[in-house]
Design goal:
It contains 10 helices and 8 strands. By secondary structure, the protein is an alpha/beta fold. The strands form 3 sheets. Strands 3-2-1-8 form a 4-stranded parallel sheet. The protein has a two-stranded parallel sheet with strand order 4-5. Helix 2 packs parallel to helix 10.
Length: 211
């Protein structure tokens, strides 16, 4: 899991992707790679998620691809079977977290309270998701949680954009930020992959300036 976290730290930003149609997976992956962020958290909110992960990994093995919004152990299995290299959950679900740990699957659960962070620490996790970030206090909340839990790093997601990315990344307890502003659904549906590449490049450059 530390290796995945190290890759997250190198990227600074992890694109959070919702794919309605698996045919968009390969061109989207290409746009992300060309834009300088060869990684994606493909959310399991659609029926196309599993096949999209499979296509991304088969077409571009160098990409770091994981599954987000994982709500069941069955989804975790399906994601890993398709090639997902990590699992992200929106909240702290002990069943999913324990299952992934037992299976040796890197997992990054959502934690927004001291009690949830404590459960993650108890299980030896070093990096957790903080979601939805802006709605639950943003950077100020993460700094407050980091005081007693200074061994944990955070991946804030939700409300992160080009305007506040640098502010988040300036705090050393943040390993990376999840964001969807460069991979918005309307851009994907329109096939605007050149624009996605452009926005991805801007995000990668912003993140690099803080590393």
């Amino acid at each position: 899991m530390s290796t995945i976290s190290e890759k997250f730290a190198q990227f600074g930003v992890v694109p959070v992707v919702v794919l309605e149609d698996a045919k968009d997976a390969a061109p989207l992956a290409e746009a992300l790679i060309k834009g300088g962020l060869p990684c994606a958290e493909v959310t399991f909110r659609t029926e196309a998620a599993q096949e999209s992960i499979r296509i991304m990994k088969e077409s571009y093995p160098e990409m770091l691809v994981g599954a987000g919004t994982v709500l069941t152990t069955a989804q975790a299995d399906a994601a890993v079977e398709a090639g997902a290299e990590f699992i992200v959950t929106p909240g702290f679900d002990p069943e999913i977290v324990d299952y992934c740990i037992e299976k040796g699957i890197p997992v990054f659960p959502g934690c927004i309270t001291p009690s949830e962070v404590a459960q993650a620490v108890k299980r030896g996790l070093k990096t957790v998701k903080f979601f939805p970030a802006e709605q639950f206090g943003g950077l100020a909340a993460i700094k407050a949680l980091s005081a007693p839990y200074n061994m944990v790093k955070f991946m804030p997601t939700g409300g992160i954009n080009a305007g506040n990315l640098k502010e988040y990344l300036a705090f050393d307890r943040i390993v990376c930020c999840g964001g969807s502003w460069m991979v918005k659904g309307d851009l994907i549906r329109e096939g605007a992959f050149d624009r996605i590449c452009e926005l991805t490049r801007e995000a990668a450059q912003l993140a690099a300036s803080m590393r």
